[in-house]
Amino acid sequence: MGILAALVIGAIAGWLAGLIVHGAGFGLVGNIVVGMIGALLAGWLLPRLGVMRAAGTLGQIIDATVGAVIILVILSMVRRA
Length: 81
Fold this sequence. Notes:
The chain is mainly α. It has helices at 2-20, 27-48, 56-80. Helix 1 (2-20) packs across helix 3 (56-80).
């Protein structure tokens, strides 16, 4: 069940990040990958910045979305260069 939950949270986070960063969506599989990598990034970065991570499933989605937005912004900047 844990892997399925991670896939669903990654998909939701990637989709939300694609909505926030216009024109940066990657389709379902890409959104899952971006969302899961975003969750890893947020899990590493947020505590180092002194930001407390949210609890529960909604908190995981929010954290993963923050990380995915950061990734999409960086990817958008690299694409333009």
